Amino acid sequence: MKQMRVLHYGVGWIGAEAARLVMRKHGMQIVGALDLDAEKIGRDLGEVLDIPKRLGVVVNNNSRALLTKTEADIAVHTTGSGFKDVYP
């Protein structure tokens, strides 16, 4: 069975919980992470999620570069709670 490749767009409180959920799901693999928080950029996603396992996924802040070089099947978008806020 092919793994579903997942890109996380936003890894704040809600995004981190979503990433932890994806990690528990069989058949899903996190292949990318994006966030604008300077404290998270350049760090391994496992460290950002505060789990003991390093995932080999570095949090990036350049969406164009990440989306160009990362093959993902789906994106989990958790940059905000309101459509009017995140649409632009």
Protein architecture, described:
The protein is an alpha/beta fold. The chain is 31% helix and 22% strand. The chain contains 4 helices and 4 strands. The chain has a 4-stranded parallel β-sheet with strand order 3-2-1-4, covered by helices on one side. The longest helix has 12 residues, at 13-24.
Class from secondary-structure proportions: alpha/beta
Mean of all residue-level pLDDT scores: 92
Number of strands: 4
Uncertain stretches: none
Characteristic key phrases:
88 residues
Task: Describe the protein's topology.
Elements: E1 4-9, H1 13-24, E2 28-34, H2 45-48, E3 59-60, H3 63-69, E4 74-77, H4 83-86
Parallel strand pairs: 1-2, 1-4, 2-3
Summarize it:
The chain has 4 helices and 4 strands. The protein has helices spanning 13-24, 45-48, 63-69, 83-86; strands at 4-9, 28-34, 59-60, 74-77.
